[in-house]
Amino acid sequence: MLRTHTCGQLRESDAGSVATLCGWVDSYRDHGGGLFVDLRDRYGLTQIAFNPPDTPEEFIEASKDLRAEYVIEVTGNVAARPEGQHNPKLATGDIELRATGFRLLNKAKTPPVSPSAKATDLPGEELRLENRFLDLRRPSMQRAMMLRDKITKRMRDYFEEHDFVDIETPILGRSTPEGARDYLVPSRVHHGHFYALPQSPQLYKQVLMMAGYDRYVQVARCFRDEDLRADRQPEFTQLDLEMAFVEQDDIMGIIDGLVEKLAKEILDIDVKLPLPRMTYDEAMTRFGHDAPDLRFGLEIVDLTDLAPQSDFGVFKSVVDAGGHVRAICVKKGAEHYSRRGIDALTEFVKGYGAKGLAWFRVEAEGKLNSNIAKFFSDDLLAQMGERLGAEEGDLILFSADKWLGTCKVLHALRTKIGEEMKLYDEKDMHFSWVVEFPMFERTEDADNPQAEGKWSAMHHPFTAPLPEHLEYLESDPEKCRAQAYDLVINGSEAGGGTIRIHDAGTQSKVFSLLGIDKETAQDRFGFLLEALQYGAPPHGGIALGLDRFVMLFGGIDNIRDVIAFPKTQKASDLMTGAPGKVDARQLKELAVKVDM
Amino acid sequence: MLRTHTCGQLRESDAGSVATLCGWVDSYRDHGGGLFVDLRDRYGLTQIAFNPPDTPEEFIEASKDLRAEYVIEVTGNVAARPEGQHNPKLATGDIELRATGFRLLNKAKTPPVSPSAKATDLPGEELRLENRFLDLRRPSMQRAMMLRDKITKRMRDYFEEHDFVDIETPILGRSTPEGARDYLVPSRVHHGHFYALPQSPQLYKQVLMMAGYDRYVQVARCFRDEDLRADRQPEFTQLDLEMAFVEQDDIMGIIDGLVEKLAKEILDIDVKLPLPRMTYDEAMTRFGHDAPDLRFGLEIVDLTDLAPQSDFGVFKSVVDAGGHVRAICVKKGAEHYSRRGIDALTEFVKGYGAKGLAWFRVEAEGKLNSNIAKFFSDDLLAQMGERLGAEEGDLILFSADKWLGTCKVLHALRTKIGEEMKLYDEKDMHFSWVVEFPMFERTEDADNPQAEGKWSAMHHPFTAPLPEHLEYLESDPEKCRAQAYDLVINGSEAGGGTIRIHDAGTQSKVFSLLGIDKETAQDRFGFLLEALQYGAPPHGGIALGLDRFVMLFGGIDNIRDVIAFPKTQKASDLMTGAPGKVDARQLKELAVKVDM
């Protein structure tokens, strides 16, 4: 090794010894007689003094050519810093290395993205991605990468302790055109045939249960060729697991233990087990969303019975049409949101399908002031106020729409207000489960009118219904709830899983309900259906979003900041230029051609 | 959990307790009054007794319907087996579970591939791959998968202990048409552009060193669209690492420690460190190969000076043309290889480019008997015999050809004879390094006459020469040796690495020697060349073949037996049918079409 210590290692107890460090020049101060350099590596910073008498004149001279990001190897005497020059913010702040010699390992041009933590202006993301080799040198990116490594390693340790077998499943798989778009790979050996990159190892892990592996885990790369939203990447990583001879409590129990371990070891937070559980129906009723942020209250109150008693026509007509009137009561919201603030909220909810925003401010003595107050009798206002627990200074916000419409609007409002009014501490972590999801939902697919309104699987077609709901498969699919469970952290779906169907009969029923005929099922999932015939054990599993975990545990908002080499929203790698042009010869061998 | 114990867990000390097991019926014996079943899971086998008085009559009756691979959950009393019925070969062989009840979890059709270890006939590989869900249920496949998991986990533990950061690099990368063929992925967003699946994370890991990560590791999936040999797969896995501020001894030292740990923890073998090292030149001289099998001797002896003194024209003309005459002396080979055996060896070496095989048998009193003995004087025979250390009963085999030709033939002979004469114990493990590889070799590319005879990089164009050989880059490239090192286990290259070039000047010289002009270099590796300008530290790394490691540590010959879902030699997955046809709509979105 060129070095004896890292730049984060030396302490006052090392004073008097000789050390060699390697690293990048983070900053330098020429004080005439010599130079101070902060030398940086991923472990920290150490102050290097190029001063007499330790440093020979020639090295002092040479040191004056050092510039930011030059790479050096420097040997010197470890010494306590002079009185008054200690830096308590730095782990090595009690010492300096008094150079006796150094070697320039490499020069650096002036970097377009400064890797120094002292740099105040972070350049635009495009420049950072183009120069990822510099951007990744920034300490905050290094912390994110090291956090990712640590979370992944702790996960793997945990699953090893629990007898899971880590098994690699193929990246070159078979296309099963459903869900998101597949990335395709033309075959050179079988012209006209294509591999598909996996959207998840779902079918392989079910096969592994049928093959007796009993407890499978993999940190699995998954691919979806979707129109990219801010928080999606074409390739992403999930902690993927599956267990046999279990019920859903066993899988949630395993994940409970993992969450407890990670919270303790990564954040030093004690989590109480079992994690709280809430049904899908309760989550939608109380919070309007299946991944509610439980760091704060601001629950939804249903006023469908009271609201039409007013003279406000909108509420009446919505309820007459089978819709709902629901509201949230924002404590001390009246003060926080002025008329202009409320106008902004009104614009905001329009983005979620609302036509406007009805509101009340609670004034002295319970008086309600609003754009629509005149339509309500005092008695009705009192009844509503009581149900909402309204107090002076509160702001009440309404949504009147179909059930799902009110959920959408009030969830959006709740999330926005929770953030704007700081209803929770940013360091809070809240972990919970949402369970008993519907098996089926009505397809919404503007591109495919034939599918519109038909049943589709809320998770995937291999999900098992609750045993006591098996009968609903035929009598009332809408009522049928699944053995499905989502892990929710701070209002984000951090993972989701289900118990799978392990008998061929139930599987057939579900396929037929989803309109998947025998031939199609055979073509897409033939091997799974075949495997079900040869001794498939009861099994289920879950997948956790690793990228999401790192974001949540690291308090990082941008998914591209937890991935070393991410793609842009247009699925490009700005550093390498992928995707790129290829030689005609390559395409010819694959028997494909570009056809714009 | 449906079970209280696994099928490998119960011992005599558990006798008297009640347990519930789940698993597959491995075999059953109806003895009239009841049934014995061996129940199997991945942990082992347990004997279940469906007999009175423990088992109620109804369950005895029901148990008679059990067939191979039925899945059951069975509860019963753990009891010591009766005297004389203990099975010392089974971990659970001292007990049986006397069933008090059971539940059929799933039935199974008669399996085309029997998962029972008792099955004597292993079906053909095609049937096994088609029914991988059954094949993977066989205990020997389960052992291989668990060994793979264990090796991988121990590797990860080791690198965590040594401060490595595990960083994921992209699967959707940029094509750099060099080396093997890339797998290509058409982009839906950028029509006419393609991603390439990585042949290795080489450039990314070098970027990570330039970004200051210092010690990177990843268990990385790699892809090569090659014509498949028996031991290659389109996708394979390597333990990939890179270190900064190091020299090659540091990297070999890290791997030495890993080998010591794995040998101890996986095989309970003590390995002495440092692992022995041999230069490339020495390996070729003594063994004719750069990954010599050092479990046995049978070294090559050079007779180029002596051989032409005979009247044997072939030797003379080969040496006159600048070639070599080299031989191996097979101890007691004369007995092992009859005339017919030697004929077989003669046929064998023809597959390696030899025109025939000259040989001597050493008979009583050092007399040499052979097809060509008449051409040699007694004195010359004596001199050659002495150099070869020939004794009565030995067999001497010659190769006369250009240097590399003799290497190829004698290495092939040595390997074959080592195996056939059992010159080593199958359980032996020999670990060593081969170092100081040539930087360059002359291109052999029948498809590309322009490249023929030009220099190509033996490893890759980023490999650094030995510091003391820098001058040969210009004066004598052939002489120039690289800071390159291969890990060799039992005659297999188990890994290979190099110190990389970290200064732009040397990198330019190497590119120009390889005929890569500036524009091409910029187009392919622009970001790397750019990163070299901004403070690149000295760095180097290595990649170990994980599939190969599992084969070597598990004594497994077939690479497809260490991969859960491998491809055939035609790159097909016989279970899923990948690669498959895709919808025209999918291709249209990608702006490609099939063009046979």
Describe the structure.
2 copies of one chain form a homodimer. In chain A, 29% of the residues lie in helices and 23% in strands. With 596 residues, the first copy, chain A, is an alpha+beta fold. Chain A has 3 domains: 12-106, OB fold (Dihydrolipoamide Acetyltransferase, E2P) (Beta Barrel); 143-277 and 433-561, BirA Bifunctional Protein, domain 2; 296-423, Gyrase A, domain 2 (2-Layer Sandwich), CATH 3.30.1360. In chain A, strands 6-9-10-22-21-20-17-11 form an 8-stranded mixed sheet, sandwiched between helices. Chain A has a 5-stranded mixed beta barrel with strand order 1-2-3-5-4. The first copy, chain A, has a 5-stranded antiparallel sheet with strand order 12-13-16-14-15. In chain A, β7 (184-186) and β8 form a beta hairpin. The first copy, chain A, starts with 17 loop residues before the first strand and ends with a strand. At the A-B interface, α3, α4, β6, β7 and β8 of A face α3, α4, β6, β7 and β8 of B.
